[in-house]
Amino acid sequence: MALETTEIQEKLVETFGSKVLAFNQDRDIFSFEADSDIITAVILFLKNDPTLRFHFLTDLCGVHYPDNEENKQFAVVYHLHNWYENKRIRIKSFINGSKPEIKTISNIFLCSNWMERETYDFFGINFIGHPQLKRILNMDEMISFPMRKEFPMEDSGRTDKDDRYFGRTTINQ
Amino acid sequence: MSELLLPPEHRYAKIIKERHNEDGSELSILNLGPTHPATHGIFQNILLMDGEKILEAEPTIGYIHRAFEKIAENRPFYQITPLTDRMNYCSSPINNMGWWMTLEKLLDIKVPKRVDYLRVIVMELARITDHLICNSILGVDTGAYTGFLYVFQFREKVYEIYEEICGARLTTNMGRIGGFERDWSPEAFRKLDIFLKDFPVAWKEFENLFERNRIFIDRTVNVGAISAEKAMAYGFTGPNLRAAGVDYDVRVAQPYSSYEDFDFIVPVGKSGDTYDRFCVRNAEVWESLSIIRQALDKMPEGNEYHAEVPEYYLPPKEDVYHNMESLIYHFKIVMGEVPVPVAEIYHAVEGGNGELGFYLVTDGSRTPYRLHFRRPCFIYYQAYPDMIKGSMLSDAIVILSSLNVIAGELDA
To answer: Would you state the pLDDT for residue B41?
Structure first.
């Protein structure tokens, strides 16, 4: 019997109550939002529950929403996959913009170690309890977090190239 | 010596100072990389060695990081394929097709069956070249240059087919939203036929050179073995995971581009060692050849090579000059003024190294709001220090090339 999304939702709501919300079937993937302070519990539950069995962490990444309210300016997005039932799930957890931190899941999924380091490197999100939270792709001396929206892609002093023709502009976005 | 290489506060410097071997020998530090001819790419590993044995390793990556995710946030959707090319540059068409399929999922475009099949052909060709490089280079690293030189000419043949399809060879930038930029020429199919005739002969010989070769077996069996549980915990996908005995393949699990129409097996290994990885890739090449043949046999009649999506597919240049509608569409597409739905998409394809995923967040504008590439190399390379612990230095080189770590994909 295939794993139904309603079953996943019921189980989650039963266990975590109002801290898991915004359940949504978007195209081929089922997604929901989880409160950042219970994220490890949610992921551990999804992994270890005998019927859910989301045993594989496919992806972990950050998203920056500078226009959101203070408490929702960063999101950490987890993609889990249950290979037995071939079901994917996406968990989104919003965190505070001025003090972005969330608990690490590197003790649950070994592979999240570098993914969290990458997210820290680009967004400055602090993964509490991570064994070695330091930059991974950028150089150690860097002081800014380049994937944040306020970080300019081009050198703002450049005059030979007008970025309006190449990408996101104030009018078009 | 070690003080010169590392700052005194480094963990390894401390270990060296505190460790006293009974025979009076000392531990040493070896910098493998960043640019070392045996590592096929730019990554550094600081190794803590006891004689020839590796005790610990500390990888440093990011040497060719090019900020693709940031660039992607500032480019219209159709200008992002060139970025995907440069991730796993041994199999760029798979990355290109994966990106178009992500967009098609976002825009809800159904492509014709013929396009699906053409895509399958080009993706399997890319898989063949990817595995061909990995396996033949593994041969080189164990001291067998001949096999590499012998099969490498067939990568050239595949590149000629790419050239017929899209005009480029290594970084292909192939395809458009909804299909290909032009129909495949008869020459492309002719070259494909020749390849399908000649390559299996050479690949069989290549296999014969290695599979029962005493030296090769001694160098690879039980070298860099990883258990299925550990491989899954480390996020392995693709041939490296299948070598450990898990039959997860995105082409079967979530068929895209009509993979469900084809009959193929997913080869699995048992012990997850270097030899099994080699054999799994070998077997996958045979499966890919079989898929290409099936696709050619089942190819629907006609010459459809793209879906009818005028909002997203550039019209032919002649029409732009003579036809009002085409001109408008051309202008809108080039200026990136075509609306896209606000959505979050995850699409995965089976890349040469495993599950290549695209996580795309859009806000309705001309560029992605956020685009994250799930790069299989990046995720499984973190297992490397664990895999080489306790092995010899020369084994570390062999393990690295059998994992097929591609620097472009590792660093994005």
So the answer is: 81
Query: How many domains would you assign to chain B?
Result: 2
Residue B408 within a domain: no
Report yes or no: B223 and B278 within 8 Å, Cβ to Cβ: no
Of A27, A83, A168, the CB nearest to B73: A168
Which domain does B27 fall in, by range? 2-60
Q: How far is B407 from chain A (nearest CA, A)?
A: 12
State whether A146 and B67 contact (CB < 8 Å). yes
- Rounded to the nearest 10°, the torsion over CA B144, B147, B153, B154 is -140
The 10s digit of each residue's pLDDT in B226-255 is 999 999 999 999 999 999 999 999 999 999
The letter for the amino acid at B306 is: H
Topology annotation, domain A5-155: Beta Polymerase; domain 2 (3.30.460)
Chain B CB contacts of A146 under 8 Å are 67, 70
Supply the ipTM of this predicted assembly.
Answer: 0.91
Which residue from B285, B287, B335 is spatially nearest to B311, judged by alpha carbons?
B335
Question: Are B348 and A58 in contact (CB < 8 Å)?
Answer: yes
Cross-chain Cβ contact B359/A86 below 8 Å? no
